[in-house]
Amino acid sequence: MSKVLIFMAEGHEEIEALTVVDILRRADIDISMVSITGNKRVPGAHGIVTVCDKLIETVNFDSADMLVLPGGMPGTLNLELCEPLMDQVHGFNASKKGLAAICAAPTVFGKAGILKDKKATCYPGMEKDLIGANVSTDEVCHDGHIITSRGMGTAIPFALEIVKTFKGEAAAEQMAKNIVYKC
After folding, report:
1. Helix, strand, coil tally for the chain in percent (to 5)
2. Which of 76, 92, 64 is nearest to 16 (CA)?
3. How many structural domains does the chain have?
4. What's the CA gap between 34 and 20, in Å, rounded?
5. What residues are paired with 148 via a beta bridge?
6. CA–CA gap between residue 134 and residue 120 (Å, rounded)
7. Does residue 181 lie within any of the structural domains?
8. DSSP single-letter state for residue 92
9. Which residue of the set 103, 122, 141, 183 is catalytic?
10. Which 8-state DSSP code applies to residue 48?
11. What is the pTM assigned to this prediction?
12. Count of CB atoms within 10 A of residue 131's CB?
């Protein structure tokens, strides 16, 4: 079974994070919510507290297939400042393992230098931080092992692209139908 880790920082965008978790769990993809704060209870950008499954200190990254970064402010900045997470982002990139980010979070990849010559998108107005990327305004960009998306309004297609990555196009289409997305 595929293993996905989604990282919660204080100030994460709740809809972007929880939409991914919900849809992947519905698709029977193993996804764990991981706190980078030292506490399993992580407040989001809009005061909603997410109770995570794990702390970053306890995660076995070797068994993971993809890392997901939700956006939000200051959540995105906090993700970028988390050295253990950034070490894993660089390691996953070097191994061509899955990386996904939405809203402001693709800028973490851009600033880390891993979007060079990759098609990528992010929250409007933050494109300058997609350093080296072929910037797009598509809802979702999937280039190689990296998936990026624009924001809260694109959380469903972002999650469906992750489902497609692990379960195939037919499974993603069935999930879209099951949740009455663009029917």
Report:
1. 40, 25, 35
2. 76
3. 1
4. 13
5. 101, 141
6. 6
7. no
8. H
9. 103
10. P
11. 0.97
12. 15
- 182 within domain boundaries: no
CA dist., res. 115 & res. 144, Å (int): 11
35/116 Cα distance (integer angstroms)? 28
Q: Is 141 a catalytic residue?
A: no
Q: Supply the pLDDT for residue 183.
A: 67
* 63 touches 34 (CB < 8 A): no
Residue numbers of the chain with a pLDDT score lower than 70:
183
Q: How far apart are CA 82 and CA 48, in angstroms?
A: 21
The reported pLDDT for the residue numbered 41 is 98
**Tokens read off for 65:** 């297939």
User: Does some domain include residue 59?
Assistant: yes
Q: What length does the chain have?
A: 183
Q: Is the distance from CB of 37 to CB of 9 less than 8 angstroms? A: yes
pLDDT at position 182, please?
86
| CATH code, domain with 38 | 3.40.50.880
